[in-house]
């Protein structure tokens, strides 16, 4: 189903119950739940059609956290709005914001990611910065102290991609290795139960993309194969160029342009015309 009133879109993101899109002109549009101001239109009114996020232009990257939103401008600054009870907006307060505010003391950013209630960003120099909730060490600074402004994640550089999940974080370095930190309750970070600073996830390398859902990590290798774990990586697909993960389901695009999905399907989130869970990938009709 096509989203009404939206065209010329170059990027999309989905939070827990809201969605974001960037248009070619650098504006950001949002729809869905707005109870915490995560749509950024100056209200807390839910929207079932897209509304423009107030006061934002020249946007090159977006991220949707659980109930908040992030955006990167062409000048490398980061802007945030929505829920802020754990400082996930990074503006040195814990007050919700219904319109975008600038994340404090952060510049030269090329990528942002929003988790349940913590945020990550990559600078041009390959360093990683985090802010928000840190009760499971998902900020990677060796503590469990939350921060409402950005801090540098120590001991890791040359990073090209990050993922912020509910209670853990992943980073992909330019050498193709994956590093992780936070709560490792299902083995998605390796073997230790808690990892308070970044550690390499062994037994997998030559990675070009990473993703994560609840209690699981995923990666695409240079050869196009997809690997998923807690604990021990197993191959689940091949010939893949793009990957996305929800709470309990995963979607990939293959080199031939076909769409495949697997995992939980109780609400039809796999798009295969059923509500049957799938433990192996099934091809999805893209409705073209």
Q: What's the helical proportion of residues?
A: under 10%
Uncertain stretches of 5 or more adjacent residues: none
The major pleated sheet works out as:
4 strands, antiparallel
| Run of helices and strands | EEEEEEEEEEEEEEEEEEEEEEEE
- The rough form would be described as globular
Number of helices: 0
Distance N to C terminus: 10 Å
Whole-angstrom Rg: 18 Å
Count of strand segments: 24
Tell me about this structure.
- By secondary structure, the protein is mostly beta strands.
- It has a domain of 82 residues.
- It has no helices and 24 strands.
- The strands form 6 sheets. It has a 4-stranded antiparallel β-sheet with strand order 1-2-3-4, with no helix packed on it.
- A hairpin with a 4-residue loop joins strand 19 and strand 20.
- The chain is globular.
- The mean pLDDT is 95.
What's the topology here?
Blueprint lengths: L8 E6 L3 E6 L4 E5 L14 E6 L6 E6 L3 E6 L4 E5 L14 E6 L6 E6 L3 E6 L4 E5 L14 E6 L6 E6 L3 E6 L4 E6 L10 E7 L6 E7 L2 E6 L4 E4 L4 E4 L2 E6 L3 E6 L4 E5 L14 E7 L4
Antiparallel strand pairs: 1-2, 2-3, 3-4, 5-6, 6-7, 7-8, 9-10, 10-11, 11-12, 13-14, 14-15, 15-16, 17-18, 18-19, 19-20, 21-22, 22-23, 23-24
Keywords: Repeat
Pfam family, one: RCC1_2
Organism: Paenibacillus anaericanus
Which key phrases capture this entry?
RCC1/BLIP-II, repeat, mainly beta, Reg_chr_condens, globular, 288 residues, four-stranded antiparallel beta sheet
How would you sum up this structure in a few lines?
0% of the residues lie in helices and 48% in strands. It is mostly beta strands.
């Amino acid at each position: 189903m096509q989203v009404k009133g939206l065209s010329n879109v170059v990027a999309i993101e989905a939070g827990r119950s809201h969605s974001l899109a960037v248009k070619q002109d650098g504006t950001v549009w949002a729809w869905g739940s707005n109870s915490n101001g995560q749509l950024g239109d100056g209200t807390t009114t839910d929207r079932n059609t897209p509304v423009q996020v107030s006061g934002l232009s020249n946007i090159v990257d977006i991220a949707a956290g659980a109930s908040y939103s992030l955006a990167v401008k062409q000048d490398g600054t980061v802007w945030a709005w929505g829920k802020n009870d754990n400082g996930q907006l990074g503006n040195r307060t814990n007050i919700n914001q219904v319109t975008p505010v600038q994340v404090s003391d952060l510049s030269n950013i090329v990528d942002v990611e929003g988790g349940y209630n913590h945020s990550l960003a990559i600078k041009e120099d390959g360093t990683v910065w985090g802010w928000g909730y840190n009760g499971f060490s998902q900020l990677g600074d060796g503590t469990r102290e939350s921060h409402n402004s950005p801090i540098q994640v120590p001991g890791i550089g040359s990073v090209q991609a990050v993922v912020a999940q509910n209670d853990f974080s992943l980073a992909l370095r330019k050498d193709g290795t994956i590093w992780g930190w936070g709560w490792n309750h299902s083995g998605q970070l390796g073997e230790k139960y808690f990892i308070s600073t970044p550690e390499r996830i062994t037994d997998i390398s030559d990675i070009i993309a990473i993703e994560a859902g609840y209690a699981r990590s995923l990666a695409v290798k240079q050869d196009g194969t997809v690997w998923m774990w807690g604990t021990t990586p197993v191959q689940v697909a091949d010939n893949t160029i793009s990957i996305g993960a929800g709470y309990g389901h995963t979607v990939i695009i293959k080199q031939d342009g076909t769409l495949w999905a697997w995992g939980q399907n109780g609400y039809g989130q796999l798009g295969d015309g059923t509500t049957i869970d799938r433990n192996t990938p099934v091809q999805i009709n893209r409705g073209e």
